[in-house]
Amino acid sequence: MKLYLIALICLSFTTQTLAAQSAKVILVKGKVTQLPPGSMKASIVKKGDRIKEDTSLVTGGKSFIKLQFADKSTMNMGPKSKTILAKMPKDKANMVNLLAGIIKAEVNKNTKKKTSTKMLIKTKTAIMGVRGTKFQTTFNPINNNTSLVTVEGNVAMVKTDGDAVKEAIKESNEYFREIEVSGQEITKPSPVISEVEALDKVFEESAEVVEVPAGRYAGVTKAIAKETPKIIAPVKIAPKQYNALAKSMGSSKKAEEVMKVTAEDKKMDAEITKSLGDAAPRSGGFVDFNSGLYVAPAETAKLNKKTGTFQEPTLGNINEKTGDYIPPKGVKIDAKKGFVIDQKASEEIAMADKEKLSQQIKVLNKGVEKQIVVNKMESKSKSSNSFGWLPDNHIVSFHFRPYSEVITVENKDSGSDADFYTEEAYWVYLELKQEWNSKWSSRIRVGGQTYKIDASDVNLSSDNSDGDDSYFSIGAGYKVSNKVSVFVDMVDRVESYVVPAGGDGVRIESRSISTIDITGEYYFTDWKNLKLWGTAAVNLLTGKDDMAPSFEGQQKTDFLGLSTSANGYYAWKPNLGLNTSLWYQRITAENDNFAFTRNSFGLGLELVYDI
């Protein structure tokens, strides 16, 4: 009997000791591995396993694990997460080091732990002190961003590089102190205070601690820690995201309840505004748990007076089951750069919508610019003003424009006219287009042409063309709306003319023609990767009389050109595509002796590369 009692007492003591220093796996999905202290090889985690103190846990993609601590608190690790269960003492706070990924936790406040803080979550940039609540926290090692959303209760948050934490760590690391033994002073290993106790003291006494109540987000990144005196303010998130997140954690709380505007609520927001000024984020945004970024609503968003949050429908959406943020179609979040175009998804988006997408990205990035560094640097060099020092975008295109032409020549002296046809004619030129901002652009075109008259039925006495077939233009464009654009180009090109040479003979003359081309473009529709639009252009003569096609001395020549085209652009990739067009042009030139009418009909092929 005595032996039975002794065995029972030993078993009970061993079980309590094990429970105090381990966490039980109550649910696991997918591949989760553990690396216990002293082990050289990781092993697969199974339901029912007990995870020892100082064990590393890693979850794979689409995997998660749920742990239960001795005090009945639970913790979920999301996919692609890594933690270390650093400390699990019986009478003090459990301490978890979050190295990457997501943690959802429900901490039991009714425990026998002697410290006020029941759980500590440590990342590279922040420490969370939990007394009894439901919350979700993430850490992204790419941008060193720690984010926290409290679902129930309060979670305290402090930066790791703050003076209070540095002093606490220093105090807990002083393992040697002078003590007196038998009248003699000797040095003996003895910690002044444990790290858990030191951090608990920080959360009890330090003014650097920020309290994050239910329904609010707070975050900190190492990149901006030196620039901001405090953690990113505890700001209310979008009610829609809070409701989904609360539901995923088994909470019955609703946004209308936890975000209800009260006197205390107004006081907190006033203190945040006073402390951070213009840097204070606007409430009602979404939290992207992968990057840790808080996406604030635009200044045009409407205020919901019941919850004190700004409603912004263009920010994106959320996953109703998990509360995860879903960016707008064709957009993704880069942890360092903020919002960027999702090249894979954008291939299915029409061209006009891509242009709208670029504008939307600029608006979205205004909501995260305080949390990223790259966009701050880019905004100085790009079009944050109406015109930047450098263009926003460069587009290079190669044009091949074969065509057929009929030249009608009228001899005013004799009253006769004749038609002449081309045997071969095409323009080839290279275009560089620079987009300075969402409205203005410029372009330069350089090239030449091949032009031959069909002489099979013509008595061609001479060809006096000088061989100069160059084409050069420079111009600017203005986008009036999403559908309408206008371009003005100064063009200098060589044109060939058929001129009577006495009797029934003719000769060919070439002249350099300078015009101002005014072109209007109208975008009809988009369908997947195909973009359809039409153009209409007017060619006006400019310069001196000797630049006109006059062939009897240097007579004044009236010159006018009209053209139209139908265009279709197909994008193989977001930055590479082929533009095809059918075009018609009519040019008239008239002086005292002759009248020329050129009717041209052709095909345009344009290979476009967006640098």
Layout of secondary structure:
Layout: H1 2-20, E1 22-29, E2 32-35, E3 43-44, E4 50-52, E5 55-59, E6 64-68, E7 74-77, E8 82-87, E9 94-106, E10 119-122, E11 126-130, E12 134-140, E13 145-152, E14 154-159, H2 163-172, E15 176-181, E16 184-189, H3 195-205, E17 210-213, E18 216-221, H4 222-225, E19 232-236, H5 239-248, H6 255-258, H7 263-276, E20 286-288, E21 293-295, E22 302-304, E23 309-311, E24 317-318, E25 325-326, E26 331-334, E27 338-341, H8 343-346, H9 351-366, H10 374-381, E28 393-411, E29 417-435, E30 440-453, E31 459-463, E32 470-479, E33 484-500, E34 505-527, E35 530-541, E36 558-573, E37 576-590, E38 594-610
Helix pairs in contact: 2-3
Describe this structure in words.
By secondary structure, the protein is of the alpha+beta class. The protein contains ten helices and 38 strands. Strand 37 and strand 38 form a beta hairpin. Helix 2 (163-172) packs antiparallel against helix 3. The protein starts with a helix and ends with a strand.
- What is the average of the pLDDT values? 80
State the CATH architecture of the domain at 393-610: Beta Barrel
Number of strands: 38
Name of the CATH class of the domain at 393-610: Mainly Beta
Helix content: 10-25%
Question: What is the CATH homologous superfamily assignment of the domain at 393-610?
Answer: OPCA outer membrane adhesin/invasin
The separation of the N and C termini measures 86 Å
- Sheet-strand content, in percent, reads over 45%
Broad shape: elongated
Query: How is the main sheet built?
Result: 17 strands, mixed
The secondary-structure class comes to alpha+beta
Gyration radius, in Å: 37 Å
Q: Which parts are unreliable, with pLDDT below 50 for 5 consecutive residues or more?
A: 1-20, 175-183, 374-388, 543-554
Tally the helices.
Answer: 10
CATH topology title of the domain at 393-610: Lipocalin
